[in-house]
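Subject: sequence -> structure tokens, single chain

Hey, anyone have a minute? Need the predicted structure for the following. Not urgent.
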Amino acid sequence: MQTPKIKTLAVTGSRNFADTQKAYALIAYIVKLHDCAQICTGANQGAESLATHFAQAKDIPFTTVSADWLQHGKAAEHEKQKTLAQKASIAIVFLAHDTTNKECASALQKLIRSRKDTYIYNEATQKTTLFTFEKYSNELIEKLPNHLFLFGDNLLQSGTAGQAVIRHHERAFGIPTKRKPTMEYSAFFSDKEDEKNAVRERLQQFASKMEQERMCAVYPMGLIGTGLAKMPEYSPETFLELHTSLAKKLGFPVEALESNLEFASVISAQHPFQVRQLLAELSQEVSQTTEQPTLF
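Reply:
Had a minute. Here:
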């Protein structure tokens, strides 16, 4: 009989993250929800130090991965984050108010490239997002209460293929990525203004729902608008706006999505200088946002 794999929660994030109450609450929630038996973290101040203190207080087995500056030099922190990603079954990254996108994106990218489901909590927006590689199903939603699942939809709000298999669940939220649920040419978005407006309107409804219900957003790492919607091919401008807007509303660095090859190809093709300028503006807007703290 095969021995069940012990699940490890990896914790990392900003060195200046100091919200002990929030860190403890989220770590405890994830450990219980995902049945994690141990914690792995780094040796830095801030989020990693809080994770160590939590594990000690709750008598949870933990390991600490330190940056080896003698062996790796300037790449020491990079190698440490890579080791954390390898050890993780699931992870959380804590992003402080004044943390740059680069600091958080580096850790996120390593976790995502290792195909590890990863939570990110942003202190500025007070929002939590779960990046998941799990295939969407109603069973998955039931396993994750208090999570709001984003999926790619169509303007007719019809069909249950692909991500839309979860359409009828109360915690599923569709964002239009096609005109209709078929594979004929006229079914695809093509960067028309009415399509962009439909996406913007739905994103605003999503933001309102998040404010009202305070759930953790679930973001599929296959991304919204790929697969059956083919947005990178037929509607790249709308595709890019969709994901940069979601990054702004949820408060995660959109650079983390560059691990997805389709997103990276759109970034490189759609005027990269203007794209970087937009991301910088979004980051500045997010850092100026403040809300009352809750679990999500």
